Amino acid sequence: MNAENFTDEQCKQYLFDKRWANGFVCPKCGGGECFNIKSRGLFQCKHCNYQSSVTAGTLFDKTRTPLKKWFAAIRLLAQNEKISAAEIGREINVSYFAAVSVLKKIRQAAETDCEIVNSLLAKFKIPADPPKPTDEIIFTDEKNSLLSIGEMAKLTGMSIRSFRYYEQINILKPAYINEETKYRYYSLEQLQLVEIINFCIELDIPLKELADLEELYGDMDFQNFLSRGKEIAKRKLAAINKGLKLIERIEQKIEIEKQCKAGEIYIREVPQKTLYVKPAETTNGVITETDMVKAFLDMPIPQAQDSSFSDYGILCEVSPNGAKYLYFMEVASGADEANTITLPAGNYICCRSENHQINKAAEIFNCRKNSFTVVETYELSVGKNASNKFTLWHELRMLL
User: SS3 sequence, 197-253?
Assistant: First the structure.
């Protein structure tokens, strides 16, 4: 019987020959003639009509698992005594729980000197290789240094299913496949390739770019691949840093809203800011949010600040000659543009309100100076008001 491609009929014939080597013998009356009821897999004695089967009284009795899968499992165990139920389940295509049951019964039968199981284990066991020339012995040593698919999965954290998928799409082919057991083995050098695959997945690089492994390991192509990956990593890192800055700004706003009520005066530290400015236009002498938004739409802003919570609003420069109002939007520090000004870092006296109050800054802050600069920012509240709605706040700031 071919151990690789046996069928259920071959398995039944093998069991028949082992059980009745000299022909059928009725277990009840000892008769030597029978009818073969193939539709039910039974042999019926012609003398007493007793029905028996080749699996009766064996570990295969009343099993729902096809005999060919039992024999395949015995073959796998014969060739690898330490094989796991999970591996057997994958090889013979049964569920994990079915594989556990099959493996347990086979081992128990072998331990109790079951003639059928032990004869199959002996039949399928791979004989020891005869001594080989020195060059082949070196090859054997190299093969023994390979890692099984399970060991690779444990070392890399990649699932066995992923290894099989990457083999299918020609990205990560096993270094060696055992023709008897179909087990996959990988070289130590392929650990680096697994890291590259994980690198591609992390950076959203299409895996099809790794399909031609020979081309990948070419010096120039590999260098280009790494250069591209480096650029993608830099962009992702920049996006992460931008997200962290955004989170920090939101946390800062939440803390301010918790501690400072509308109309209250408070002092907080503000970092240096670079502002892009444009003269403010008014509607009937009044500055409105609509006027400011329209002005920003027309602004050729040089380099926007990396945050959705950048400052924008109205800046007022007060001097003995009067007040000058400017629209402003925060831009990245170092922006080279004539229409930018820099507000120094320091402690600013502040006041929050739902209404414009920049024209009342001197009164609110009790400022008696003839010249000063004050800014009023527009900020969406991160919390909701009493009406359960988000509100637009204005924060008035003046450097102490």
Answer: HHHHHHCCCCHHHHCCHHHHCCHHHHHHHHHHHHHHHHHHHHHHHHHHHHHHHHHHH
